[in-house]
Amino acid sequence: MSPSDGARSGRRGGIPEATVARLPVYLRVLGALADGGVPTISSDALAAAAGVGSAKLRKDLSHLGSYGTRGVGYDVEYLVYQISRALGLTQHYCVAIIGVGNLGHALANYAGFATRGFEVAALIDADTRLVGQRVAGMEIRHLDDLEEIVATHGVSIGVIATPAAAAQEVCDRLVACGVTSVLNFAPTVLSVPDTVDVRKVDLSIELQILAFHEQRKAAGGGRTPGAAVPDDVRSAAVSA
Amino acid sequence: MSPSDGARSGRRGGIPEATVARLPVYLRVLGALADGGVPTISSDALAAAAGVGSAKLRKDLSHLGSYGTRGVGYDVEYLVYQISRALGLTQHYCVAIIGVGNLGHALANYAGFATRGFEVAALIDADTRLVGQRVAGMEIRHLDDLEEIVATHGVSIGVIATPAAAAQEVCDRLVACGVTSVLNFAPTVLSVPDTVDVRKVDLSIELQILAFHEQRKAAGGGRTPGAAVPDDVRSAAVSA
DNA sequence: AGCGCTTTGTGCACCCGTTCACAAGCGGCG
DNA sequence: CGCCGCTTGTGAACGGGTGCACAAAGCGCT
Fold it and tell me: Cα separation of A148 and A144, whole Å?
C-alpha cells in the first residue's frame, strides 16, 4: 500500500474505472424509471434492470457516497442527480466530430449525445466537397480550421471518425489545441501523451471477439475434454 | 500450467477474455507489417505498435502456443495465421444488420467487416419505405422476413442498430432463430439466455466516461500549463 | 414505543489480469 | 566449435474487481 498516495478514496478521483464504466448504464435505467414516475427503487431491482449483480451495484454506488435509505432503496431522482454529478455531467461539454463520412453522419445525428449535456459544436472534414453542406442542422467546416474551431467553441472532446490513415494526424492536432479527451472510431492505435485520455470504439474488433466465442461454442458441440463448455458464459457488456 | 499436453490441445477455450480482446489489435498491426514486407518482428516492437506492454503481449501470444523464435522474434505471416485461427477467423461468418438508420448505413458500408471473413448477408428494417432500397449494393428486406433470412443465409451474428425500444424484441427473435452472438448498438440492456453472447457498443456511455476523466483532470490540477507530471495522474491510454 | 421485516453498506476471501524479473533457447560471430 | 548477445516464454508477486455473507439501519405495523 502507499498511504502517501494521493488517491483519497472518498473523493471523485477515487472511483474505480470499472465502476465509472457502469455508472452511465445505471443513469440510463434510472432516467427511464424517473420518466415512468417511479419514486424509489431497490438495489436488487435496479441491478436486474442494469444487468449486473446487486452486490456489485451497491458497491458501485457506495463509491460516490451513502445515498439510499435502508429498508427502502434509492430515491430515483436523487440518485440520477448524484450519478450525473459524479460523472461530471452537470458541466457542459463541447464535442467536435472530425470526419463526416457514413459514421460521422450517424454520430452527428445520434440523439444520445445531446441528452446528457454533450453538444456537438462542429463537424469537420478534409473533403472540400463536403464543406459547407449541412448535416443535422450544422454546417461542415474544413479541417484547416480545426484549431480555430476548437478554440472558439471551447471544444473539450474530439471524436475521430476519419479513415485510419488520417487519424493520428488529426489526433495530434487536437492534442496540440489542448483537447485532452478523444473518442476514436478509426481502426488505429493512437499514440498520445499520458495527459490525454483516448477511448476506442472498433466495430471490427467487436465482431472478431464474437467470432471467437462463436467458434468456441461450435467446437463444444462435438467433443472437448476437460472443461468442455462452461456455462458461465454470461452476456458480456464491454465497450471501448 | 499445461507444459506437458500443451502442444496438442491448443486450448482455444482457455484463452483469457482480456487476451481475446487484444488479439484483433495485434492482428491488424501484423497485417500492416505483412503488407509492408516485414518478415519478423520482436515482441517489443509489436507491443509498441499495438500500444501495450511487451510482457503482456508475450503472455497473450503464449496462450495460443509457442510460435516465435528466441533471439529473433515472431514470423509475421505465421503469427497472422495463428491468431486468425485462434480467433476463429478461418471460418466464414454471415452477419445480419437489423435497423438501417444512420448507424445501420454506416455499418453496412463499413469496410472493416468484409476484410476479416465477415460477410454482411442482409440488411433488415421495419420501415416499409426503406424496404427494397439498395444500400452498399444490398437490398433492404423487411423485418417480417427475419426468420427466413437468418435460416437461408445461415446468419450466425446479428447486429442490432435499431432504436432502443425495438432492440429487445429483435434480439428475442434472433435468439429464437438460433443466433448465439449479438452485437448491440442500441442503448439498452438486452436480456438473453446464458448461451448467447452479447457485446454492447454505446457511444453515449463512452462520452460519459470521457467526461468523468475530463472533469477529474479539471478539478485536480487547476491550471498547470507545464507538462509537469502530477502525483498519480495515471491516464492510462487506451483500453480495449 | 417497540419489534420485526426489509434493504443498504461493507469486510473478506477469491479470482483474473498485469507486471516484473529471469532462466531457457536460438542465431550469429569469432 | 564454442561463446555471447538477443529475445522468448513463464514463474511469481501484486493489484484491482467480484461475489458472498452479514451487521447496521430505517420503516411500518401492532
Answer: 9
Select the residue of A180, A208, A220 nearest B24 (Cβ to Cβ).
A208
Angle at B90 between CA B85 and CA B92, to 5 degrees: 145
Dihedral of the CA atoms B71, B74, B75, B81 (nearest 10)? 160
Q: State how far the Cα of B160 lies from the Cα of B124, in Å rounded to an integer.
A: 10
Low-confidence spans in chain B with pLDDT less than 50: 1-12, 222-240
State how far the Cα of A30 lies from the Cα of A83, in Å rounded to an integer: 10
For residue B111, the model assigns a pLDDT of 79
Euclidean distance between CA atoms A129 and A144, whole angstroms: 14
Residue A204 confidence (pLDDT): 94
Percent of chain B at pLDDT exceeding 70? 86
- The nt closest to A2 (CA vs C1′) is D15
Question: How many Cβ pairs within 8 Å bridge chains A and B?
Answer: 270
DSSP for chain B reads --TTTHHHHTTGGGS-HHHHHHHHHHHHHHHHHHHTT--EE-HHHHHHHHTS-HHHHHHHHHTT---SBTTTBEEHHHHHHHHHHHHTTTS-EEEEEE--SHHHHHHHH-HHHHTTTEEEEEEEES-TTTTT-EETTEEEEEGGGHHHHHHHHTEEEEEE-S-HHHHHHHHHHHHHTT--EEEE-SSS-----TTSEEEE--HHHHHHHHHHHHHHHHHHHS---S----SS--------
Residue A200, helix vs strand vs coil: strand
Neighbour-count burial of B92, counting CB atoms closer than 10 A to its CB (0-12 exposed, 13-18 middle, 19+ buried): exposed
Q: Predicted confidence band at A230 (pLDDT cuts at 50, 70, 90)?
A: very low
Nearest neighbour of A231 by CB, restricted to B107, B194, B210: B194
CA gap A160, A186 in Å, rounded = 7
Q: What is the DSSP letter of A73?
A: B
pLDDT digits (tens, 9 = 90+) for A182-203: 999 999 999 999 999 999 999 9
What is the DSSP pairing of strand B197-200 with strand B181-184? parallel
Secondary-structure percent of chain A, ordered helix, strand, coil, rounded to 5: 45, 15, 40
Give the separation between CA B231 and CA B224, rounded to whole angstroms. 13
Q: What is the mean pLDDT of chain A?
A: 88
Q: Is A95's CB within 8 Å of B207's CB? A: yes
Residue A129: φ, ψ to 5°:
-70, -25
Q: What pLDDT score was predicted for residue A221?
A: 53
